[in-house]
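Exam prep: given the inputs below (a chain plus PRP), describe the expected output before reading on.
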Amino acid sequence: MLRIAVPNKGALSEPASAMLHEAGYRQRKDRRELVLVDGQNQVEFFFLRPRDIATYVGSGRLDIGITGRDLLLDSGAGAEEILQLGFGSSTFRYATRPDTVTDVSRFGGLTIATSFPGLVEKHLAEHGVQAAVVQLEGAVETAIQLGVAQVIADVVETGTTLRQAGLEIIGEPILQSEAVVIRQIGAEAEDPKVRQFLRRMQGVLVARRYVMMDYDIRAEKVEQAVALTPGLESPTISPLHHEGWVAVRSMVPTGEAQRIMDDLYDLGARAILTTGIHACRL
Ligand SMILES: Nc1ncnc2c1ncn2[C@@H]1O[C@H](COP(=O)(O)OP(=O)(O)OP(=O)(O)O)[C@@H](O)[C@H]1O
Ligand SMILES: O=P(O)(O)OC[C@H]1O[C@H](OP(=O)(O)OP(=O)(O)O)[C@H](O)[C@@H]1O
Ligand SMILES: [Mg+2]
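Solution:
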């Protein structure tokens, strides 16, 4: 059985379970369920705190985990990222009160509050800055108001929490994060159970990002049309009963589908259809 760690709460929990469900795995119905066996797919899911997942996977107790890149790197565990999942995107940034500190190089002697001390200490060391780091569990933004620190380092998604706390971002992001699949460093790369799991997850990513496009076009225009819809490998071209015309079928990125349909229409294509992809293996 493949043993997989999934966030049991927090920002990554629901989207991770939704993606696993879309990939055909059983998921829990009750948030208090901590272990779930999917016998049909030979997978056992462990619902764990996202912050602990890299530790379990890095120690080899679990084969695979879904967690945030920021949590993985903060943990220092012996695990590595093997697939990006395209949700849970955020940046990890420094912030402070306006018109105080403006650059990391000025952090010397200050105190920085964060829930990610591993990330912050590494970043400060890379910049040769000597600053104190105070670890807090959450609501880090309030640490400045309460005088615990002069600077914070925290997850920023929309920036709303920072704005409401009257804080401003300092400098460039320390890290761009998103949900990722992780494995123990040095684990058997070709494990067929792991390969199958990754193919399923990649199938969901493709199904989410692409639609299937079909259209009819005059044979002499097909090269120009195919340039607009090159597909992932190569489009399928089929003859039509109506002489001089062909049917083309190709995958296109969902976000570009409407623009491509306009361009195809202008080129003379007709009966242009898009359909959703429910699942795929590339
Ligand atoms: N808006 C967001 N707020 C918090 N974390 C986010 C957000 N968007 C993405 N994430 C990611 O979620 C992970 C944080 O997991 P965590 O369990 O700490 O979530 P949480 O929402 O902070 O839950 P809690 O604070 O209840 O523990 C990190 O990888 C972080 O980058
Ligand atoms: O940029 P925003 O969209 O405002 O999101 C970022 C905020 O969300 C998270 O807090 P969370 O709700 O997890 O609370 P916590 O600080 O207690 O972890 C994070 O720690 C930031 O405070
Ligand atoms: Mg949080």
